[in-house]
Amino acid sequence: MSRSAHPAGPRHADVLTEGHYSAPPSDLNALDPKVWAHTVTRTDDGVVSVGGVEVTTLAEEFGTPAYFLDESDFRARARAWRTAFGHDADVFYAGKAFLSRAVVRWLYEEGLNLDVCSGGELVTALSAGMPADRIAFHGNNKSAEEITAAVRAGVGRIVLDSFQEIVRVAHIAHSLGTRQRVQLRVTVGVEAHTHEFIATAHEDQKFGIALADGQAAEAVRRALSLDGLELVGIHSHIGSQIFDMAGFEVAARRVVALLAAVRDEHGVELPEIDLGGGLGIAYTSDDDPREPHEIAKALSEIVSRECEAAKLRTPRISVEPGRAIVGPTAFTLYEVGTIKPLEGLRTYVSVDGGMSDNIRTALYDAEYSVALVSRTSDAEPMLVRVVGKHCESGDIVVKDAFLPSDLAPGDLLAVPATGAYCRSMASNYNHALRPPVVAVNDGEARVIVRRETEDDLLRLDVG
Ligand code: LLP
User: Which residue lies with its CA nearest to atom 5 of ligand 1?
Assistant: First the structure.
């Protein structure tokens, strides 16, 4: 087929040397349920809808770019984690993935707890009515103000991340006349198979206290000796976007070994272990994520087995999924602005957002899918790179994908699986206005985080 048949650019995968697509999908109008929120479907008129509302209506009412979040899907995923872990375990949703007051209320109603990692997340959680005892406070360098706020609020636990913090939290709790429940975060020496920036349990990184060379045992000694602290458990988080269960199993085994060592040395059986978050999701059809019940079964079996072998009472397990709950529940809706075909290479499709609403492609080389959602098309597939409007050539939203070759300015594109670490990592680069998050449910859409305005930008600029 001649190139001229495809004026908007080349259609062949033979020009593609990187990325995961080797050939165009057989039907560009199809929506793979693996990467789209549960209620996303293409209606008879060809327009995609979520929660019963068509994207064309959503774009008219709320503008683009915008994140649309399927509330019933969020609740269903939260419930699936809760049910999978049952009553002998706790699920702490990791607020860093995406946090807003509506989300906090949904979590509360679905029986989940909440992991926060800054004063800002703490204040959001408390202001939405999450009971403090269901909140865990994380971070490798919590400020004295943050620790004080957490202790004052009565958070259920603070996860201690360093030797300095053991003393700081003990001192603050003591001076407030209380004893703070704490866990100790250890690095178990597992290399998680994920991007270097989101792997956290090998020793050469900033988080936690190493199990190796007796550091963690020493930290336990100190924590147990201080009045202001009630050490209730050990915490491990090995990384993020992980598909392989082996890392979690090694971590569980090593954490239980530390519990046994603590029992042997101090005669104390710590009652809790937290095995962190990190379960991967499908960003493209190539990804095959594990289900919550699979991870629940694997973790509880290994912890029970190891505890039995060490003659320990089985501790209460907790986990901290963020991405696996919120990631698949949202997509970002963009409008196509300009289209630039590069003969023999690819077609650049510029949308009205970019690295300010999704930094993950630039930062981690993350792969995403994309679909034309305002209509169907029978045109030939063309190889595209979806880029943003920022003054930076690395401003890529979707590196390699196929879209119909009759794509035109004004068409709406949606990028699925942007619920986690997109709005929460959004920036004002180039003084972009951060997009809103709109929850859609049962035919109704409502803004849960509003779009930034130029007034918001100017309000901070007080010079
Ligand atoms: N618990 C702790 C202690 C964590 O540090 C994290 C993530 C989680 C739980 C939740 O992990 P999840 O289930 O969401 O994978 N910005 C990166 C991810 C950084 C994750 C940081 N910690 C990304 O966009 O991939």
Answer: 237
